[in-house]
Amino acid sequence: MSPSVPLSPCTRRPYRRGGRPRRPVHPPGSAQGRLAAALDDVLRGWTDAEVAIHATATVLPLSAATVGRARSGRCVPSAETVKALAAIAGVDPGKLLRLRTEAIWQPFAPVDRPGVTRRVIMWSLGQSLEALRRRGRTAVPYRVLARRAALPEATVRDRLAGIWPAGFRRQVRLLLQLDALLRALGVPDTAIYLWHGPVRLGLARTSRWGVTRRGRWLG
C-alpha cells in the first residue's frame, strides 16, 4: 500500500488534536441527519481528504467534497458511496443502507402525532402520494399511475385527494391499494414500511371505540 494511503481505521486513534474542526451534522433530527451522524461516527478520526484517498486507492474513486457532504448531511450519498465508506471503515453496510433508504423516502411519508384526527392523517397521506407523483421533472399522469397500480383512475384520484373510506373491514383492501400506489410511484419494497405505521393508525382511528363479540374494534 502506498505511504499516502491512510491506515485502516482499526489502527487509528479515535480523534487527533488540531486540524479543522468537525462539521456539525445538519439537520440533526432528520433521517438524513441520522445517516450523516452514522457515517461521521464510523469514519471518526479520518479527515475527508484521507477518506477520499483511501477510497480511491482501494474501493471507489471519491472526492473529499463528496465525503464531506455525506458526513455533514448536506446531501444523501449514493448507495455505492455508502458501501465504499462502510468498506473503508470496516463495518457492515446494512445499517447504513437502511438509514439511506429512510433518508430518501421518509420526507415523503406521513407522520402520525398523538391527538391528530383520522381525517388529518388521511389528508396527509394524500399529500404524501401527490408529492411522490410530482417529484420528477414532470408529474406522473393519473391514468399512467392507475395503469401501473392496476387500479381504476377514479380510485387513484380519490386516494391522492385524501379520500380513504372509513371502516375496519376496509383496512386490508386500502393497505393493498396503498402498496400498489407506492410501488407505482417508485418506492422500493424496503421503504414501504415508512407509510404503514401512520396509515394503519389513521385507518383504524375513529371518534368512538367499542368491541364487538368477535373482538373487533369499531367506531
Structural write-up:
52% of the residues lie in helices and 2% in strands. With 219 residues, the protein is mainly alpha-helical. It is elongated. Strands 1-2 form a two-stranded antiparallel sheet. Residues 1-20 and 207-219 have low confidence and may be disordered. It folds into two domains: 9-103, 434 Repressor (Amino-terminal Domain) (Orthogonal Bundle); 109-218, Orthogonal Bundle (434 Repressor (Amino-terminal Domain)). The protein has helices spanning 31-42, 48-58, 64-72, 79-89, 94-105, 118-133, 142-149, 153-160, 171-184, 193-204; strands at residues 210-211, 217-218. The protein contains ten helices and two strands, in the order H-H-H-H-H-H-H-H-H-H-E-E. Helix 1 packs antiparallel against helix 5, helix 6 (118-133) runs antiparallel to helix 10 (193-204) and helix 7 crosses helix 9. The relative contact order is 0.10.
